[in-house]
Structure formats: structure tokens, C-alpha cells
Write a structure and sequence with these properties.
ten-stranded mixed β-sheet, globular, Rossmann fold, about 210 residues, 2 domains
């Protein structure tokens, strides 16, 4: 594997500030092919059942699945990237539109974290990631003072949650899946960290 990041394009709202970077391995998930094609971006592979796209695209690397399947096209793309050995995923076009697909893509982030990798899901104004038993660090450039950040437990209990460099810090606290304690925090303008000792956290922050 020569490329360093797996970039996956979906059919949802597309963030123009989160386009593929040089060296990315690019996967189009079904109609995500249209989002890439309209921007002159050629994917390395296209994966899906193509019910959204309406036809099998003319491309040398197509992996077609049955419409009657357990995984979403996005999850199939993620599993393919994990199989290739990627540990860093950028997902664009996975938000907006149907709320069930939005939630399924957030679950897909948790699946990525559960497989010892990191995924980021982009919208026009926000980015979402998931961490499991680990830490996520924001540089001062990313942690602009006053920008919103929210942290949610994606486990029944997320234990040992520590938030540093935020307006409302936490020190080794427990968050639960049924109480949105971590919503609407803010960056303080310095390096910030979100850490969980035991469990999965969903982190959502403003990028605009």
C-alpha cells in the first residue's frame, strides 16, 4: 500500500473544503461517483449496488454488490479500505439527506474506531470523528477560540473522559449514551485534547 489515506465519496452533501489530497486512495460509494466526476476527480475504485446511481459506471475498477445486503455502500467502501490496510479515512458526502443514512454513517465511524483506525466525516460546516479507548488532539490552528465542539458517548458508558483546552474542561469523568452532557462546548484557542479511557466517543466540531 503506497497511498497514505483512504478517501471515500458518498452521495450526500459535499464539502468543497474537504476534497481529496495528493496521495489519497479514492473510493466512490455508489452515486458518490457523480460528486467526484463533476469535480474532475477520478476514483481508484467504485463500490456499491448502484441503485442510487442508476447504472454501473464505465470504470476499470468496479465492485458491484447486491441491493439485498447487510452493509450500506459506505460501509462496504470502508471495509474495503480496511482490508487494504488503511488506518486513516476521510468521508465526504456522508451527511445531509436521509437521517437514517446520516446515523448509519456515524455508526460507520464507530466501526472504523473499533478497528483501530480513524475516520472523519465532513459536512459543509462540521467534521465528525469517533475514538475508542484513545485520544484525539486538535492543534491551535484547528482549535479556534469560540468554535463549537461537542462530545457524545457512543457506548452505554464512556469512562475516563478528559477534555483539555476547552471552555468547559473535564477530568476523568463518565459520559453516558442517554445524556448529552458534552454538547456545545467551545475551543479555547490553544491545543485541545479529547480522551476516553474506556468506551467510544463521537466528536463533532465546527470547521467554518
Amino acid at each position: 500500500m503506497e497511498k497514505t489515506r483512504c478517501y471515500i465519496a458518498g452521495a450526500g452533501d459535499f464539502c468543497e473544503t474537504a476534497l481529496p489530497e495528493k496521495g489519497d486512495y479514492i473510493i466512490a460509494a455508489d452515486a458518490g461517483f457523480l460528486a467526484l466526476n463533476s469535480r474532475g476527480i477520478k476514483p481508484d475504485v467504485i463500490i456499491g449496488d448502484f441503485d442510487s446511481l442508476g447504472e454501473v459506471p464505465n470504470h476499470p475498477n468496479v465492485i458491484r454488490s447486491s441491493p439485498e445486503k447487510d452493509d450500506t455502500d459506505m460501509m462496504l467502501a470502508v471495509k474495503f479500505g480496511l482490508m487494504l490496510g488503511y488506518e486513516d479515512f476521510a468521508i465526504n458526502g456522508g451527511l445531509g439527506g436521509r437521517p437514517d443514512h446520516t446515523l448509519s454513517n456515524i455508526q460507520t465511524l464507530a466501526y472504523i474506531a473499533d478497528n483501530d483506525a480513524i475516520g472523519k466525516l465532513y459536512s459543509n460546516d462540521s467534521c465528525i470523528t469517533a475514538i475508542k479507548n484513545g485520544k484525539y488532539t486538535f492543534t491551535p490552528t484547528e482549535a479556534i477560540k469560540g468554535k463549537t465542539i461537542s462530545v457524545f458517548s457512543f457506548s452505554e458508558k464512556a469512562k475516563g473522559v478528559t477534555l483539555k483546552g476547552l471552555k468547559y474542561p473535564l477530568q476523568y469523568e463518565t459520559l453516558t449514551y442517554d445524556n448529552p452532557t458534552g454538547v456545545s462546548n467551545e475551543f479555547a484557542g490553544t491545543e485541545a485534547t479529547v480522551e476516553v479511557k474506556n468506551g467510544i466517543l463521537i466528536i463533532i466540531w465546527s470547521i467554518q
